[in-house]
TrEMBL record:
Membrane-spanning intervals of the chain: 20-38, 83-104, 116-138, 145-163, 198-226, 238-255, 267-287, 318-336, 348-364, 376-396, 479-509
Keyword rRNA-binding: no
Keywords: Membrane, Transmembrane, Transmembrane helix
Domain Glycosyltransferase RgtA/B/C/D-like, first and last residues per copy: 117-240
Protein's organism: Candidatus Methylomirabilis limnetica
The keyword Transmembrane helix is annotated on this UniProt entry: yes
Coiled coil start-end: none
Record-linked InterPro entries: RgtA/B/C-like
Name listed for the protein in its UniProt record: Glycosyltransferase RgtA/B/C/D-like domain-containing protein
Lineage: Bacteria, Candidatus Methylomirabilota, Candidatus Methylomirabilia, Candidatus Methylomirabilales, Candidatus Methylomirabilaceae
């Protein structure tokens, strides 16, 4: 029998603690309620509306042709979404929930009710991603208390929370797919059960159906699987991993054919390019004042510093995380729309945030008080950074400083130059300032007056009313107040949800602190 590859020191070790089902349920409830408490309850981005339109077409008509933005002409001259079908399928249960809710709402508000219900999709997906990160941390040998801290840092101090609660974009589902693949590959290394590579491939397949870009991660995931598998089971593991991935490719190519009459056509023909100079993209994603990874997720600085100590015990996991990070960083840096505009932070790097969060546990386990204080400090700084992104819709800020509607094409080097590269116009500072001002107005009962028009538009407001959005908070309870719900009732709803999140978080933290459980079969 062949031994495992050298350098793997923890391949047979069990993590110190394992959560009971009740602990996992409490954790899921905590993150779900926390995300819901600061969600917008709307779908404002053009990308999100297009994904919603596909969900609506599937449920209402049993077809995939849609109208609106971000579409391309396809079969029979009809218009189709350019995006993958993954998130649209995931949203179907929430759309059905919205249909039930419309039975009790005024007819002219039906579009808003449906979009509000579907916007919950990413909150649930985000909570599941947090559970997977927590479980992966345990598989890497961390205690439950450290795993909980890492998950809290990921959930609340990085830009992941903004994409989980705003805009209905694909980033949360991509991140869930990445974490699911990583978790089951790490488990496969520990127990060698054939279903683990299959589950890892299943999650990777979901990522492919969500966005074709996810395929750039397959070589890294496959290399890790082959290197960490015992020689006698490598072929078996590769086959089990490849089956769901191959099925996802088949479904994705079939979806292409249904839309555009060709398995190779995605709708991006003529607009997809990798024309950005590499150094420009790298500078923008790592060091710029408007899009830096380290600015929008300060705790990742500690993640970079932790890679070396992490490698002492988890050599191959370090190379897995580093490989995933580098391949995404390099490809996105060359992409013509490397900043993912309009967006909060470097949104195309959201799915690799766990690769810089998980290694930090190697510093926290038995680390000095200085390291732990530094971690807490960076985490709190990250929470402060997200305050602006959670409170003010980024499109509103762009409109305020004259960057929206867009004046230039995305390929133009000067496109959103102020937002990307000039510190005075960085959304981190600008949206924080707007958030403070608008929060003061909200708690004092001040509000702009809107007339919601009975039109099925992305933003059902007149141009005059759209200019008033700079005075608003991008939060569900604030929108309820602007729509005429009494302030006291809105504040009660806000405090109730946030208070519930705090209580659930406290219970979850206590259950994780020093808890030791038998290994669960999860």
């Amino acid at each position: 029998m062949t031994s495992e590859p050298s350098g793997i020191t923890h391949g047979k070790q069990e993590p110190r603690t394992f959560p009971a089902f009740l602990t996992l349920s409490t954790l899921f409830g905590f993150f779900l309620v926390a995300f819901l408490s600061v969600s917008s309850g709307t779908i404002a981005s053009s990308d999100g509306v297009t994904v919603f339109n596909v969900t609506q077409a599937l449920v209402e008509c049993g077809e995939i042709a849609v109208k609106g933005d971000n579409v391309a002409e396809g079969v029979a001259g009809r218009l189709y979404s350019r995006y993958g079908i993954g998130l649209s399928l995931a949203a179907i249960p929430f759309y059905l929930l919205g249909k039930a809710m419309t039975l009790f709402s005024p007819a002219h508000l039906d579009p808003l009710v449906l979009k509000g219900a579907v916007s919950i999709t990413n909150a649930a997906i985000g909570a599941l991603a947090c559970i997977l990160l927590f479980l992966t941390a345990l598989r890497l040998g961390y205690s439950q208390s450290v795993a909980f801290l890492l998950t809290v840092a990921f959930a609340f101090s990085t830009f992941f929370i903004v994409y989980t609660t705003k805009s209905f974009l694909t980033q949360p589902l991509e991140t869930l797919s990445m974490l699911g693949s990583i978790y089951h590959l790490v488990r496969s290394r520990d127990d060698g059960i054939p279903c683990r590579p299959f589950y890892a491939g299943l999650f990777a397949g979901v990522g492919i159906l969500t966005k074709w870009f996810f395929v750039i991660n397959l070589p890294i995931l496959t290399a890790y699987l082959l290197i960490t598998s015992v020689r006698g089971r490598r072929v078996r593991d590769l086959v089990f991993f490849s089956i769901p991935v191959g099925m996802a490719f088949a479904l994705g190519l079939g979806y292409n054919y249904m839309r555009f009459g060709s398995v190779w056509q995605t709708g991006y023909a003529g607009i997809l390019s990798f024309s950005t100079p590499l150094l420009v993209g790298l500078y923008g994603l790592l060091l710029s004042s408007g899009k830096s990874l380290f600015l929008y997720a300060p705790v990742t600085l500690l993640g970079v510093a932790s890679l070396r100590p992490f490698a002492k015990d988890r050599k191959y996991e370090m190379w897995l995380f580093l490989g995933l990070l580098l391949v995404n960083l390099l490809v996105v840096s060359k992409f013509y729309d490397w900043s993912g505009e309009g967006a909060w932070g470097p949104r195309y790097l959201t799915l690799v945030l766990p690769c810089l969060i998980l290694p930090i546990g190697s510093l926290l386990e038995g680390g000095s008080r200085t390291i732990k204080r530094g971690f807490i400090g960076l985490m709190l700084l990250g929470v402060l950074v997200q305050f602006g992104g959670l409170s003010v819709y980024y499109g509103t800020y762009y409109r305020t400083i004259g960057e929206f509607p867009y004046q230039l094409e995305r390929e133009n080097p000067l496109f959103l130059y102020k937002v990307r590269f000039i510190p005075n116009y960085s959304p981190v500072w600008g949206q924080f300032d707007m958030a403070v001002r608008n929060w003061k107005a909200f708690v004092h009962g001040e509000k702009p007056v809107f007339a919601i028009e009975a039109r099925d538009e992305r933003i059902p407001l007149s141009e005059t009313d759209r200019n008033k959005l700079s005075e608003t908070l991008d939060l569900w309870f604030a929108y309820a107040y602007y729509a005429g719900v009494p302030l006291g009732l809105c504040l009660t709803g806000m405090v109730s949800l946030m208070g519930s999140a705090v209580v659930l978080g406290w219970v979850a933290a206590r259950s994780c602190r020093g808890c030791s459980r038998p290994r669960p079969r999860i």
